[in-house]
Amino acid sequence: MQRLLRRIPWLNPSSTSQIVPAELQPRFHHLYWDIAWFGLVAGTTLAFLNVYAARLGASAFQIGMLTAGPALINLIFTLPAGRWLQARPIGQSVFRAALATRGVYLIYALLPLLLPPGAQVQVLIWGTLLLTIPGVALVIGFNALFAASVPLEWRAYVAGRRNAMLSVVYIVTSLVAGYILQNTPLEVGYTLIFGIGLVGAVMSTYHVSRLRDVSELPGDEPQRIRQIIGDTAQPGGVRAGQGVGQRVSIAPRVFTRGRNLLRADVVQGHYGWVLFALFGFHLAQFMPVALFPLRWVDQLGFKDMDIAIGTAVFHASVLVGALQLDRLTRRHGNHRLAVIGVALLSTYPLFTAFMPNLFFYAVTSLIGGLAWGLVGGALPNYLLEKVPPNDRPAYLAWYNLALNAAIFLGALLGPLMANWFNLQIALVLAFVFRLASAIFMWFVERIKPAEAATAS
Question: Cα dist. 228→3, 59, 180, 280, 416 in Å?
């Protein structure tokens, strides 16, 4: 066990003593329990929401709207939410945003027993859209709350534990949810697992409420974003699934740092090419978002327990891939590792298009999880290498907006391709686009020397 722990660098604090200071222990305690309870949400409601929509008979476009709609809301409300958070104590603001956002889990829990299938799909879409509005403030604010709650030298330590806790709880909960769904009628089963998600959301919000005393006010926060926290386990920011809703929101707290963020000079030159390459990747990443559950449910006839097994395998392999990230980064660098991860991730829709049974589904999930473990870890660090240390808010703001634009367009383009051709051809095209984005990401680094030569 000790040898295993030494392989996990983010389970050991850096540049500090091994003992957590007494004044920080309560904050860390609530941050850990916050994500542990939110793991119930991720492993139940978020893991099976698209699958449930598919079982209700939702179209590819309707399932795509469950992802595209929130991305559009993020595009519209990100800057206003940042300004709203600027003028308020961060702890209180995040708690209020969490209360408002998590009302959607009550809607999900009541739906299966109250409305016919067609009406449920519409409520799923519109309820998700409506409660994404305060969710924008929750995503931005929680990142700022984490930065204010945890000193710089302890952030990797706390974030690493949160990420590991989310992965473990997610894996166990998704398997339990699959067992429940396998052994109960559709309406009862989904009422139960959405109810478990509601309990997790309530308890997670309780622990967020215990951080209300954190009161970073305008002028208190550092003027520079010195570090990407690396906390992928952000309540409100997690969109669960297998390569479906995995986001790489990087330091969204930049939107609380000022109004002059979207400067045109930022996207001129090499960073503009980098941003375009990452936009292309996320566009291709989210193209098949609505197609996976339709392939699993309608064409392959997978049961919920089958999907739960694939989900558990995916996230277990994400954790395994993350454990190797530090060693691989030192050997290959962030750029090469991100390109390899994206190329490997491109195989997920290709294998999904042709896999015949549960065994190949598990293999596909294993490969996809390992790929995402590389992409999710290397891509933020690669982006940070391209950002001037004294001007990170403006650069990272452009990335976060490009991310949401790519999610919105990609989640709608996939269903359109399925309508133009068929579902399997659309999945193959998603593979082609993902692989092309990996190749483009590789050649982006070849653009920079040419620019430098021209400048000289």
Answer: 27, 38, 38, 22, 35
- 218 near 225, Cβ under 8 Å? no
Angle 226-228-232 (CA atoms, 0-180°, nearest 5)? 160
Contact 60, 290 (CB under 8 A): yes
Q: Quote the distance between the C-alpha of residue 341 and its chain's center.
A: 16
Write the single-letter amino acid at 94: V
Phi and psi (nearest 5°) for 213? Answer: -75, -10
23 Cβ neighbours under 8 A, 6+ residues apart: none
**CA atoms of 289 and 275, how far apart (whole Å):** 22
> Above 70 in pLDDT, residue 5?
no
The answer on pLDDT for 86 being more than 60 is yes
Shortest CA distance to 143 belongs to which of 129, 155, 134? 155
Angle subtended at Cα 144 by Cα 141 and Cα 147, rounded to the nearest 5 degrees: 150
Q: Are 402 and 386 in contact (CB under 8 A)?
A: no
pTM of the model: 0.88
CA angle (71 as vertex; 207, 427 as ends), nearest 5: 115
Q: Say how far apart CA 381 and CA 394 lie, in whole Å.
A: 17
The burial class, CB within 10 Å (0-12 / 13-18 / 19+), for 396 is buried
List pLDDT tens digits, range 371-426.
988 888 888 888 888 888 777 788 888 998 999 999 999 999 999 999 999 999 99
Find out whether 54 and 297 touch, Cβ atoms under 8 Å: yes
Contact (Cβ atoms closer than 8 angstroms) between residue 392 and residue 223? no
Place of tokens 């534990």: 161
d(CA 284, CA 280): 6
DSSP secondary structure string for all residues of 379-443 = HHHHHHHTS-GGGHHHHHHHHHHHHHHHHHHHHHHHHHHHHHS-HHHHHHHHHHHHHHHHHHHHH
What burial letters (b/e) apply to 193-227, b meaning 16+ CB within 10 Å?
bbbbbbebbbbbbebbbbbbebebeeeebeeebee
Nearest-angstrom CA–CA distance, 23 and 187: 47
**How far is it, in rounded angstroms, from Cα 297 to Cα 51?**
7
